Amino acid sequence: MASSSSRGLKRPRLFAGEAIDDLLHGELKLIQKKAGYRYSVDALLLADFVLPTIKPGHKILDIGAGSGVVSLILARRSRAKKILGVEIQESLAKMAARSVMLNQLENRIQILQLDARKMVRRFTAASFDLVLSNPPFHKLGTGVISSNRERAVARYELELNMPQLLKICARMVKPQGAIALVYPMPRLKDLIRQLDKTRLFPSRLRFVFHQKGQALPILFLIELGLKKTTLFLEPPSFIQSEKGRFRL
Known about the structure:
By secondary structure, the protein is an alpha/beta fold. The strands form 2 sheets. Strands 3, 4, 5, 6, 7, 8, 9, 10, 11 and 12 form a 10-stranded mixed β-sheet that branches. Strands 1-2 form a two-stranded antiparallel sheet. It is globular, with a radius of gyration of 17 Å.
């Protein structure tokens, strides 16, 4: 597939401290900060987890879209009809929107600067075939919160916590749809406790190890739905392998 650079795309305005980086080995271009919030491998892992499940015509909701990485990948690698990326931070939402324009994907992706907790007031329930999120990983009171606001909101539950996220997902997903999340392993017990309080049921689970041979995984990817079903444990993913760092 031709790279973004070979398609002669118009270079958007860049602000101080920003750069245009390759994504998917040059299939896409991504605007992100040189320092500050930058996407990490968990976004690639989440995209890899959901791509096989996306069917032509699907409508997808990306909660906490950040710089738009997952939305861009799904638009490039799937035949989803429409992807809505919701991001609370204005700076990241505008950056993601510029990346969408840079890659000429405005007809597939819409980026909306919005507090996801307000979605229930603006969007009809059960509107999406797939709801996914690479949410803030850490609870308040654990670790040291970055002084960089973008990093802090992206990594700590300052604006959106797990119970709130699950409630939004359950409301926005279609009855036969799916929800996909990625979290660090210490949050698995929290998620199990929260699922007992919701009408969501796990259907797929994949553990992520740093590399083969490690005893304990560091992340997990989980698919949830509104109907109770058998939980399928998928083969694990590895961030580092003999071929190098995880790539799509």
